[in-house]
Design goal:
By secondary structure, the protein is an alpha+beta fold. The chain has one domain: Jelly Rolls (Sandwich). It is built from 7 helices and 15 strands. The strands form 4 sheets. Strands 1, 2, 3, 6, 11, 13 and 15 form a 7-stranded antiparallel beta sheet that branches. A 4-stranded antiparallel beta sheet has the order 4-12-7-10, with no helix packed on it. It has a two-stranded antiparallel sheet with strand order 5-14. The longest helix is centred in the first third of the chain and has 17 residues. The chain is globular, with a radius of gyration of 18 Å. 43% of the residues are buried.
Length: 299
C-alpha cells in the first residue's frame, strides 16, 4: 500500500460530583449469542482492530440517532470546528440511550468481559471540502495519566459513509503489541489543518502498513486504545461523521485526580472497584465547562 502522510491539577471538590451507581444498567448477554464471532475476536486481539459484520442498530433506531445528531450539529457554534464535539453525552443524557444500548455494549463484551464501563464518547464530524486530518496517534497516549491498566475498546460508529474518498480512518495493524505499544514519541503539527496538536513521530510508525476502515452508515469498527490510527483530510463533496464510544472493563481504574473532568457510566455488570459513576439520565454540562476552564483535552 502506498505511503500516507496524514497520518495535572488536583480535583476541585466544590463541583457537584456524579452520583454513585452500584447496580447494573443492563443485563449480561450470557443467554444471547455473542455479537462477535470467535474469528473477529481473534482478529481484534492479533491486529488491534476489527470491522464486525452487519449494522449496529435497527434502521429505525439508527435514524433516530442520526436525526438527534443533526439537531446537535445545527446548534453547534459556528466558530467551533465540528470535529471537536468531545464528550457530548456529558451534557446530553439522551445520547446515553444509544451509547449504553445493548447493541453497542454487546460489541465490546467479548473483548472486555461482562463488567463494563463507558469511559468517553466523541463525535468527529469532518465537513465536506475542508474536513481536517486526524494525525497519527494512539488513544492510550492521551489517557496514560487517567487509566490503569490501559485496556480500552473503542467502537467507531459511522453516521455517514466513511471511505477513502472522504477521509476514513486508517489503522496500522499490530501496532498495539509491537514497538512502543501505545506510548510512542510525538511531535507538534499544524493545528490549523489538524484535529489534534501532536502526531506520532515517523520513526515510531509504519505508514506503509496502514489499512483503511471503510464503513457504511450504521456500521462500525473496533480498535484497541494502543493501536496507531489517523485519517486524511476530507476534501470530497461528502461529509464524514463518526461517533467514537470508548469502553473499559470495570477492573480498570480512573485516576481520582481527574474525577472533576472525566465521568464514567456503568454499561453492564458490576462496578468492581466501587468507583464514582454517573447517572446516565442526568445532565453533567458543568463537567464540560470544567474541562474547558482547565484546558483539559483527553481526546
Amino acid at each position: 500500500m502506498a505511503k500516507k502522510d496524514f497520518c495535572r491539577a488536583p480535583c476541585d471538590t466544590t463541583l457537584l460530583m456524579p452520583t454513585l451507581v452500584s447496580s447494573p444498567t443492563s443485563p449480561s448477554t450470557n443467554n444471547r449469542p455473542m455479537r462477535l464471532s470467535q474469528e473477529e475476536v481473534e482478529h481484534y486481539r492479533r491486529e488491534g482492530y476489527v470491522i464486525p459484520r452487519g449494522p449496529v442498530f435497527s434502521e429505525e433506531k439508527f435514524q433516530a440517532l442520526f436525526d438527534h445528531f443533526e439537531r446537535k450539529l445545527a446548534e453547534w457554534p459556528k466558530d467551533k470546528r465540528p470535529e471537536a464535539m468531545d464528550t457530548p453525552h456529558f451534557g446530553d443524557p439522551k445520547l446515553n440511550e444509544w451509547a449504553l444500548a445493548p447493541e453497542v455494549v454487546d460489541l465490546v463484551e467479548p473483548l472486555l468481559g461482562p463488567d463494563i464501563i463507558l469511559f468517553s464518547t466523541h463525535f468527529i464530524c469532518k465537513p465536506k471540502g475542508d474536513g481536517r486530518r486526524v494525525p497519527w496517534h494512539e488513544d492510550s497516549a492521551y489517557w496514560r495519566k487517567l487509566l490503569e491498566p490501559m485496556e480500552v475498546a473503542t467502537v467507531w460508529l459511522a453516521l455517514d459513509p466513511s471511505t477513502t474518498k472522504n477521509g476514513c480512518m486508517y489503522v496500522i495493524p499490530r501496532s498495539h503489541n509491537t514497538g512502543k505499544m501505545g506510548f510512542s514519541d510525538y511531535e507538534n503539527v499544524d493545528v490549523n489543518t489538524s484535529v489534534f496538536e501532536t502526531e506520532i513521530v515517523k520513526a515510531d510508525r509504519r505508514d506503509e502498513l496502514a489499512v483503511p476502515c471503510e464503513l457504511q452508515p450504521n456500521h462500525c469498527s473496533l480498535h484497541d486504545a494502543r493501536t496507531q490510527h489517523g485519517s486524511p483530510p476530507n476534501t470530497s463533496d461528502i461529509r464524514r461523521c463518526g461517533w467514537t464510544l470508548r469502553f473499559i472493563p470495570a477492573s480498570t481504574r480512573l485516576n481520582p485526580e481527574y474525577a472533576d473532568r472525566q465521568i464514567m457510566y456503568l454499561a453492564r455488570g458490576r462496578n468492581l472497584l466501587n468507583q464514582e459513576l454517573a447517572d446516565p439520565t442526568r445532565d453533567y454540562s458543568h463537567v464540560i465547562e470544567e474541562r474547558k476552564r482547565r484546558g483539559f483535552k483527553a481526546h
